[in-house]
Amino acid sequence: DVQLVESGGGLVQPGGSLRLSCAASGFTFNTYAMSWVRQAPGKGLEWVSTVSGSGGSTYYADSVKGRFTISRDNSKNTLYLQMNSLRAEDTAVYYCAKLRREAFDVWGQGTMVTVSS
Amino acid sequence: QSALTQPASVSGSPGQSITISCTGTSSDVGNYNLVSWYQQHPGKAPKLMIFEGSKRPSGVSNRFSGSKSGSTASLTISGLQAEDEADYYCCSYASIGTYVFETGTKVTVL
Questions:
Q1: Contact status, residue B57 vs residue B46, Cβ threshold 8 Å
Q2: Do B102 and A110 touch (CB under 8 A)?
Q3: Fewer CB atoms inside 10 A, N or C side of chain B?
């Protein structure tokens, strides 16, 4: 079965850092672009970042550009999101998602990130 | 990277049809036929229901259909059922590697 499993969420103080991971299985990981999508409590979905299948191209929402870094290790079938200079407004459930034909066809269960002092 | 807009809520009785609209701009919805729709039940991850504007992934009921006119995409649910009660989001490709979601519509089955 195709599966994505996120980890690494937790409570962090404003200005702090956190690294999220997403372990993929059941498909040829390096042939698909991958993304992170977040959802603040009680709010809608927000696209955060995308990385190409090779890892050579990355894209970011304006709200996280310069603070977040997306990467992948195709030898480990794992996607990452390094989050620095975290703010209260970054508090959300973070989902990793597989991209196919410009749609997010597989989603993980999400990992909660809370930024608070 | 502005959010797409749509009604906050839509309701219907079992068996009825409802349509959720999603209004974008000429930079996203109006420029590409790459709108996708997602269903999200409370506490669950989103599920892809429609891609490329009108195509259904394997396993998605044919009661769900998508269309587009200009900068407005639409999702129609026919034969509304209790399990269709959920939040629905549309998403549009905006440029290479970037996407924009709309604000979400809560569907209530009366």
A1: no
A2: no
A3: C
User: Is A5 within 8 Å of chain B by CB?
Assistant: no
What does the longest C-alpha to C-alpha distance in chain B come to? 40
What residues of B are in contact with residue A105 (Cβ under 8 Å)? 48, 51, 57
Specify whether the CB–CB gap between A78 and A22 falls below 8 A.
Answer: yes
Q: In this structure, what token pair is assigned to residue A67?
A: 């603070």
CB contact under 8 A, A107 and B99: no
Distance between start and end Cα atoms, chain B: 35
> Which of B73, B31, B32 has its CA nearest to residue B49?
B73
What local confidence, expressed as pLDDT, does residue B30 receive?
77
| End-to-end CA gap in chain A | 40
Q: Hey, are the CB atoms on A50 and B34 less than 8 Å from each other? A: no
d(CA A23, CA A73): 10
Distance from CA of A40 to the nearest CA of B (A): 12
Q: Decide if pLDDT at A1 tops 80.
A: yes
Task: Calculate how close chain B gets to A26, using CA atoms only, in Å.
Answer: 17
Could you identify the residue written with the tokens 């959920």?
Answer: B86
In whole angstroms, what is the distance from residue A90 CA to residue A36 CA?
A: 13
* Minimum CA–CA partner of A4 in chain B: B45
Q: Which residues pair with B21 in a beta bridge?
A: B74
Which residue in B84, B93, B87, B89 sits closest to B103, CA to CA? B89
